[in-house]
């Protein structure tokens, strides 16, 4: 080997040892089977509550140690492990990874939560830490805020990439690496670590209601996060508050920010005042209704999410609300085989307008598992839809679809089905009733 070729070989070895490109599809593996993750950040200490979590269809929980992974495994759950990737591949980091990499319940590695947000747009950079001169310093791109972000990113990003490279070097099962961000985290910095992770995504908890005084008014204005519906009353008669539209927007945003990488959406399992503190305690206590939680989960999946997780259940004081979340997860769990099946993109859903002022916006899921089919249609509008057409249902003429959570049955004719929908209604249509969750507890929760 010539000296030139020797140095080229060394360079390539170093290059590929530094980079560890993420290639995962977002699904988790349990006993050799791919599963759509339905996750809980909360691992209950009480065994009965843990059993209830499993019975509700959750399949993965956040763990912190061998003991918690053992407990998850004994309950039949997989676990994910959060790691301080931003500190780099320190001796302490390597020791923790080495100790847990062989655990059979470990399904995912997770990086630091909302890592980019904490050095860019997080409001406590002004209110508590006084690093930003005023609320909105980041959103106005003031020099001090930019300099602070550049300083932190110059340390954090290389450390994140280094730590992930170490994980890749010792994890023979090639588990996926996920970093959850805040919904408005900065694209530039996310993309500096993006190639090294498998899964991106964000958390969004849109159901809240401000009191008369909002001490973070400036932050809300700059963040564009003062939801249009915040001052509206609690839902009535099954109404769905428009805040839920945020979930579709941010799922789409992270599909774009992540250049098509798998996206996990972390959804709301708490009421904001339950977080405590002077500000949060001043808010009016509101919870998503069952219909709102269900809407948020389905719209995320229909938009492209590869996993649904719930944060905040450890704060939740309302048992009725908790059971409504479990009703959603049971429904999703019953559809597991479809949730890991590819989308049948030829199936199309559209509305034929009856009145010119009626909006006609839909999202949908069309999946096949063996000979069974699942069609989910989501009416995204506050209007009644009198002519909803599911078309291009090739080779399905004569096949019967059951509305799993309604009374309707539809038979495909002329390669289509036609029906009507209520505002914000979700129709879950399947070719067999066996895909229905039989438990009804929590489905009548009206929210607050």
From TrEMBL:
<dbReference type="InterPro" id="IPR017853">
    <property type="entry name" value="GH"/>
</dbReference>
<protein>
    <recommendedName>
        <fullName>Glycoside hydrolase family 42 N-terminal domain-containing protein</fullName>
    </recommendedName>
</protein>
């Amino acid at each position: 080997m010539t000296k030139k070729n020797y140095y080229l070989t060394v360079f390539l070895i170093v290059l590929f040892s530094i980079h560890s490109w993420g290639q995962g599809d977002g699904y988790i593996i349990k006993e050799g089977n791919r599963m759509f993750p339905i996750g809980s950040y909360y691992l209950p200490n009480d065994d009965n509550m843990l059993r209830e979590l499993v019975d509700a269809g959750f399949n993965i929980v956040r763990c912190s140690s061998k003991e918690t992974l053992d407990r998850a495994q004994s309950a039949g759950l997989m676990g994910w492990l959060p790691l301080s990737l931003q500190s780099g591949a320190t001796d302490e980091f390597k020791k923790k990874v080495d100790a847990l990499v062989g655990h059979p319940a470990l399904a995912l590695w997770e990086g630091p939560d909302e890592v980019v947000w904490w050095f860019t747009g997080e409001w406590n950079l002004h209110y508590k830490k006084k690093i930003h001169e005023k609320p909105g310093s980041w959103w106005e791109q003031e020099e001090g805020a930019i300099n602070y972000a550049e300083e932190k990113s110059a340390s954090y990003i290389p450390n994140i990439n280094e730590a992930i490279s170490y994980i890749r070097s010792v994890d023979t099962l090639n588990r996926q690496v996920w970093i959850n961000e805040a919904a408005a985290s900065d694209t530039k910095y996310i993309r500096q670590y993006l190639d090294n992770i498998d899964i991106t995504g964000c958390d969004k908890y849109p159901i809240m209601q401000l009191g008369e005084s909002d001490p973070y008014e400036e932050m809300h204005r700059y963040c564009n996060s003062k939801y249009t519906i915040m001052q509206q009353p609690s839902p009535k008669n099954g109404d769905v508050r428009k805040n839920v539209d945020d979930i579709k927007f941010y799922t789409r945003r992270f599909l774009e920010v992540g250049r098509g990488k798998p996206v996990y959406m972390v959804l709301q399992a708490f009421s904001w005042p339950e977080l405590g503190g002077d500000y949060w305690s001043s808010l009016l206590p509101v919870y998503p209704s069952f219909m709102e939680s269900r809407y948020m989960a389905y719209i995320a999946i229909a938009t492209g999410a590869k996993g649904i997780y719930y944060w905040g259940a450890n704060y939740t004081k309302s048992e009725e609300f908790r059971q409504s979340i479990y009703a959603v997860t049971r429904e999703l769990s019953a559809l597991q085989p479809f949730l890991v099946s590819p989308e049948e993109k030829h199936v199309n859903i559209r509305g034929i307008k009856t009145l010119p002022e009626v909006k006609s916006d839909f999202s949908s899921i069309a999946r096949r598992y063996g000979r069974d089919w699942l069609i989910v249609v989501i009416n995204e509008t506050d209007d009644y839809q009198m002519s909803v057409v599911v078309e291009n249902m090739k080779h399905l003429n004569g096949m019967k679809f059951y509305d799993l959570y309604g009374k309707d049955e539809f038979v495909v004719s002329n390669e289509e089905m036609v029906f009507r929908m209520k505002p914000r209604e979700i129709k879950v249509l399947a070719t067999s009733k066996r895909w229905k969750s039989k438990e009804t507890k929590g489905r009548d929760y009206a929210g607050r």
